[in-house]
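Quick entry, no commentary yet.
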Amino acid sequence: MITHLNGRLIEKNPTNVVVECNGVGYLVLISLNTFSALGSEESQLIYTKLIVREDAQILYGFKTTEERTMFEQLISVSGIGPNTAMIMLSSLIPEEIAHAIQVEDVKTIQSIKGIGAKTAQRVIIDLKDKMLKLTFSSENMFTQNNTNRFDALTALVSLGFDKKSAEKAIEKVSTGDESVEKLIKDALKIL
């Protein structure tokens, strides 16, 4: 099993990258969150999960071990395949998915393209106990050392706002030491 690749980034696209390790190029499918986190450095460490199917061997890549763990948990749910799990990880960061599962927020999970009400409920039922045991290092740039901004973003997304728009609004109003309530109120004025 291939658990990570440490090599030269040859090609970078929103859905995949090519990483060269000792003269061999590996095509790795990634989420949009991983795409954003990769940056522009040529040398990259990408954590991977190899999925072997009857007709293909597909390598999925993640910038953090937390994202890989969330991917593994999601594909363990009946009805969630690797592609759906990648869509989920492209729509929400692992911390947001874990939080939505822990508080049984069906709307947030259902807001992801391709996830219906029954699948969202199944994800919550199957993973709720497992999510309570997971911890995240918050390596995501948006949430790093700022739980108030993360909580405000989660609240805005659960209210039905687009994640990217909510992030931009919070970025505009945040000076670094506001309460969650103030961030939400100020961001709502912009949205």
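second:
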Amino acid sequence: MREGTGLSALVLGAITRDVEPAGASSPGGVVHYAGLAFAALGAHARVVTRSRPDDAPELLAPLRAANVETRALESRETTTYANDYSGSEDLHELLAASDPIAPADLPPAWRRADAIHLGPLHRRDLLPETLSVLEGCIGIDLQGLVRRRGATGTELAPNPELKEYLARVTVAKAAEEEIAVLLEGRTLAELAREHRIPELLVTRGARGALLVTQRGELEIAAVPAPRRFPTGAGDVFLAAYLFARASGREPRAAGRFAARASAAQVEHGFVPEGFALEEAGW
């Protein structure tokens, strides 16, 4: 572990069991990838999650090995996704969903952090009222909130409760295909204004990302990297962005740093320790 930065980070959401087409499984989800990224960047990281008690030791082992504090709440099911990255589009099918995380599930001492990363992976993963007890720079990944189970698998669809989440965050992030179902004829700037989102990030893979702020729309160039480990790249992007913003960096600089961190995840499968000092050039 690298020396700590003094910055604190909290990640909320379901730890997942990710199942590959061949049948192998591994820990996954926003809390897994973002928690490890925050720890590698030197933050004091905490994770609050839900899973079946029998699954928690295995799924949380990598986080605990990285000295991430974990609060594992009991759930009737462990969130499980079948993921397929072999085609032109990534496919994600929700096979099982955990019970929701409610305000009472967060100890008072855990409710404040410099960077707070919300990673709901299904629509009832994190209750909207849970956001009301949080204090810090709050960012949310919209991926689970714009997905639902359909007749032929998981599909993208608008969520009428989304406004309850967006009203309480500083940063919202979505992939390009996810944000498309929310625009309904609006521009990104119009969507951000309507929901009063101070900073909106839209990731576009190898084409980089868009950052929409009150000052306008910025292009964040992608950092080229061999596509060896695509899983978790978006989670790391938001975690690194929140880390940089909580450290006092402006949105443009934070976006560039997030692009570097995401590229490291894609190439290596993790963010190298000491990355914030060695790669960002600060």
